[in-house]
Design a protein that fits this description.
This protein has 246 residues and is of the alpha/beta class. The chain contains eight helices and twelve strands. It has a single domain, classed as Metallo-dependent phosphatases (Purple Acid Phosphatase, chain A, domain 2, 4-Layer Sandwich). Bound molecules: zinc ion. The site of zinc ion has 7 residues, from loops.
Length: 246
């Protein structure tokens, strides 16, 4: 089984299409760690793809906010503006679908999926200190998470917590051997708004048969996504950050 692991698409159709082109023919099932909408200017298309293809998915905080299920107290001005704009684009059916998205963790036989952490769907866990307490909540050997928009993750090995490395700026892939005796928290990175200083769209493919995880980065024409954001009248910062990956 080869699973396509996507997170934080954030209504960026151009990045999503680039990822799907790159991954074409290399996956059997899709997993989505949430934040399908918000920030970007193509929420309808992002929902359409996810609804059709994601075999396992959880909601993100932006999905919740757009669905009216989350107070926007923690959201900055640009995020709030994008929530209000997104709501105005969605049909009643899309809104109902967003409202009905499950909170993480979602479980399958050999993995679990969360947006933030297994303990709190809205929490960030990036550093070893933030990740370490999660161990007791890992009920499968592999847990996929999104939210931070930082590709990578951690493994719990005998010697302690070891970080997983992502592709360098000149590489398109980093392959990790998954040891069945270790636990893994894996963030595929953000398709639509990377924040790990690499503006390329991020995703992962998990090849269960060969126990390999492929972290991938894909160049796409972010100017197209920027143009859509500006044309929609969304805050300029949401377009600008796509060029820098910050
Ligand atoms: Zn997000």
């Amino acid at each position: 089984m080869r699973r396509l692991i996507l997170s934080d698409i954030h209504a960026n159709l151009d990045a999503l299409e680039a990822v799907l082109n790159d991954a074409a023919g290399n996956w059997d099932e899709a997993v989505c760690c949430g934040d399908i909408v918000g920030y970007g200017a193509s929420p309808v298309e992002a929902i359409e793809w996810t609804r059709r293809y994601a075999d396992c998915l959880v909601r993100g905080n932006h999905d919740k906010a757009c669905a009216g299920l989350l107070e926007m107290g923690d959201f900055n001005q640009a995020a709030r503006a994008s929530v209000l704009w997104t709501r105005a684009q969605l049909s009643a059916a899309d809104m109902d679908w967003l409202k009905g998205l499950p909170a993480g963790p979602a479980f399958r036989a050999d993995y679990q999926v969360v947006h933030g952490t297994p303990a709190d769907e809205d929490e960030y866990a990036i550093t070893a200190a933030e990740v370490e307490p999660i161990e007791s909540h890992l009920l499968r050997t592999v847990c996929f998470a999104g939210h931070s928009h930082v590709q990578g993750g951690w493994s719990w090995q005998r010697g302690g917590l070891i970080p997983l490395s992502r592709p360098g700026f000149s590489e398109s892939e980093r392959v990790i051997d998954l040891d069945p005796d270790y636990l893994y928290l894996i963030n595929p990175g953000s398709v639509g708004q990377p924040r790990d200083r690499d503006p390329r769209a991020a995703y992962a493919i998990w090849d269960t048969e060969n126990r390999l995880l492929h972290f991938r980065r894909v160049r796409y024409d972010f100017r197209l996504a920027q143009g859509r954001i500006l044309e929609a009248g969304l805050p300029e910062i949401l377009a600008e950050r796509l060029a820098t990956g910050r």
